[in-house]
Amino acid sequence: MADILDKSVIENLLKEHKISAIFHLAALLSSAAEKDPERAHEVNVNGTMALLSNTHRVASSEKRVIKFIFPSSIAVYGIPNIDTKNRAKPVNEDEFNTPITMYGINKLYCEMLGEYYLKYYKSLNTEHSSLNLDFRCLRFPGIISALTVPSGGTSDYAPEMIHSAAQGKGYETFVRPDTIIPFMVMPDAVKALIQLNEVSREKLTKNVYNVTAFSTTAGEIADLVNKVFPDSAISYKPDSNRQKIVDSWPSNIDDSAARKDWGWIPDYDIQKAFNDYLIPEIQNRYNNEK
Ligand code: SER
């Protein structure tokens, strides 16, 4: 284990293990970041900057390419009000880039930093024309895992609701039942990261790609959960700060560029996500704990 801000550790790791691809997953998520914005900036921005600059330094001094896969988020979008959200078509990468949270601002800025390293240093590089830091970014929707419960996110009501019900606990949902945002399950998130790492650079027409699987409301998730766990006591007590955050995120995002450029297609729609992944894996997990 090491601190993302510890430059010497990162540089040594890159050199010693001849690392060829970095998946930079460390971040403070949106709700956690609102509680401690300065710490969030430190980890999310300074941590990413340290990793980018070390990666660039090692890759250019060793004259090789290191891929930098950066997961960003629907939090980079900031839709001004609920009417605009409800009327919007699936949002593409360039629309509504006006985030309202520290986390969203951090992610959007780091996307731009990554593109800066990719383009600016490439153009300066006269000695050898190949690029050194091959920055590629995904914008994820809310992610739901059967194995871990997230912490500090604002899309966490979905996984928290499912995991609570499976443990026979009640759940007080911190958003309204009509709240809608896009989601995907963890196996699809891992698949997207691996595909983006593997695709050849020539196929990429962008450096930042939306990916999504299904859009659904908190109420629809509760209905699906109630079918399997009829005793689950799901109620609603919207938290105004967290509600404001999810209301600023799109109902749906347009991932047609990822589909076209590198064949992205999710394996799980909402039914398959519940029937084939979430319910069996979660039941398994809590049954084994009994
Ligand atoms: N899941 C993240 C969050 O809720 C959004 O990317 O903060």
From TrEMBL:
InterPro entries per the UniProt record, alphabetical: Epimerase_deHydtase (IPR001509), NAD(P)-bd_dom_sf (IPR036291), NAD(P)_epim/dehydratase (IPR051225)
UniProt cross-references to Pfam families, sorted A to Z: Epimerase (PF01370)
One function term, GO molecular function aspect: L-threonine 3-dehydrogenase activity
Span of domain NAD-dependent epimerase/dehydratase: 2-211
Residue spans crossing the bilayer: none
Any Gene Ontology biological process: L-threonine catabolic process
Family indicated by similarity: Belongs to the NAD(P)-dependent epimerase/dehydratase family.
Protein's recorded name: NAD-dependent epimerase/dehydratase domain-containing protein
